[in-house]
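Action item from last meeting closed. Structure (417 res):
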């Protein structure tokens, strides 16, 4: 039997495809129906920017706030010092406190695009778990919190079990991560009456730990809700492109390249992604997703525009679309393409065309660039180019040089100074 929720939040997220699991759906629905609920999602500061893989849960927080509830973005200033071992085959590299703080600064810019931290009773909160984790007394923590955890049970969690089954080392430091994350939920419940933790389905075990701990220590009933781990219709993990992670900060990935990532969505994923990553009404998402032939390309442009406008603003989305139309329809050079600026000193007597493909991000390595040339996928100024040994001189860059990898990925090389 399909559950029909009373609360607007659950209705919206079930209809749009956000819900994987929930610890007690009916009780949570009751709480959400009675008034404003506070929920959080945690983000470890392992990089200077969030990436597209985080976007599903950021949209989940956005819908949570849009339906009248209060979201908390919890920055893992404390837990990042340990590292989440979930479904990893190796230990995360440890970062310095300075690196962690710099990464948090970079991540905060993105949240402000999706959530309102300033207005109304349900204004979002941003908190850092270093507030309570940095000053923990180890012996007190072991006695008050550690005694509630069964090692037998912790070993049974899939994230830990999969690592041990492969006979890969799991350090005691990492083993503590799930206790610290559970303690976060306890603290947020104690401090902010936070009733719900949300996250990807790989976090299910950690979320359940926090619910159990809070019930044992505070005798409070709290809830967990997870989103599906998304793969594209061709089986790839959502958020990975040929060039690596699809970053959300403009300094790490230009708005044009971000737009292009969404424009390249497969036909089969278009309707689903419109429901998950835009604010468009569900009926419109379904209508656009059902288009076929050349019409589905217009749906993909709407997807790219909507997602880019949310993150980078409407002007950036319009500029990206205009550039794409110029590049793909007219074969021209758009103003908004990723650009490599070189000085005469950088070029010297000549710089290898292979090096330019790597510098522009069109190839991950010299080897990948040479393969592109060998397979006929490289173009220079819209002309097929097969000579991987070609040298580009400063003279040749009096006009911007357009590089292309395949039909859809382009960059400019310009001479400065």
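Sequence:
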């Amino acid at each position: 039997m399909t559950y029909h929720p009373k609360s607007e939040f659950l209705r919206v997220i079930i209809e749009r495809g956000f819900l994987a699991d929930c610890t007690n759906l009916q009780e949570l629905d009751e709480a959400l129906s009675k008034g404003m609920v506070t929920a959080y999602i945690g983000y470890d500061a392992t990089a200077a920017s969030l990436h597209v893989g985080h976007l599903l849960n950021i949209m989940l927080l956005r819908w949570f706030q849009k339906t009248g509830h209060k979201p908390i973005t919890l920055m893992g200033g404390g837990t990042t010092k340990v590292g989440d071992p979930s479904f990893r085959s190796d230990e995360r590299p440890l970062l310095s406190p300075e690196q962690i703080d710099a990464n948090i600064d970079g991540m905060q810019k993105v949240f402000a695009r999706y959530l309102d931290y300033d207005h109304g009773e349900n204004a979002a909160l941003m908190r850092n778990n270093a507030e309570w984790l940095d000053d923990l007394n180890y012996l007190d923590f072991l006695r008050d919190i550690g005694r509630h955890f069964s090692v037998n049970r912790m070993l049974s969690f899939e994230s830990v079990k999969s690592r041990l089954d492969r006979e890969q080392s799991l350090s005691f430091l990492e083993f503590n991560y799930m206790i610290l994350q559970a303690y976060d939920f306890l603290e947020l419940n104690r401090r902010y009456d936070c009733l719900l933790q949300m996250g990807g389905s790989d976090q299910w075990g950690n979320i359940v730990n926090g619910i159990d701990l809070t019930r044992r220590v505070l005798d409070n009933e709290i809830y967990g809700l997870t989103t599906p781990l998304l793969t594209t219709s061709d089986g790839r993990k959502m958020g990975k492109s040929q060039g690596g992670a699809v970053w959300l900060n403009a300094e790490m990935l230009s708005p044009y390249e971000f737009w292009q990532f969404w424009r390249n969505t497969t036909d089969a994923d278009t309707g689903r992604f419109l429901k998950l990553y835009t604010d468009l009404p569900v009926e419109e998402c379904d209508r656009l997703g059902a288009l076929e032939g050349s019409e589905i390309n217009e749906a993909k442009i709407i997807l790219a525009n909507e997602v880019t406008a949310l993150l980078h603003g409407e002007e950036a989305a319009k500029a990206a679309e205009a550039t794409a139309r110029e590049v793909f329809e007219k074969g021209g050079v758009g103003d908004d393409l990723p650009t490599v600026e070189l000085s005469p000193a950088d070029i010297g007597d000549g710089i290898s065309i292979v090096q330019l493909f790597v510098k522009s991000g069109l190839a991950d390595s010299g080897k990948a660039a040479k393969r592109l040339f060998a397979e006929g996928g490289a173009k220079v100024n819209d002309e097929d180019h097969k000579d991987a040994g070609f040298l580009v001189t400063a003279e040749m860059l009096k006009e911007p040089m357009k590089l292309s990898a395949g039909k859809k990925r382009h960059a400019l090389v310009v001479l400065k100074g």
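Note appended to the action item: The mean pLDDT is 87.
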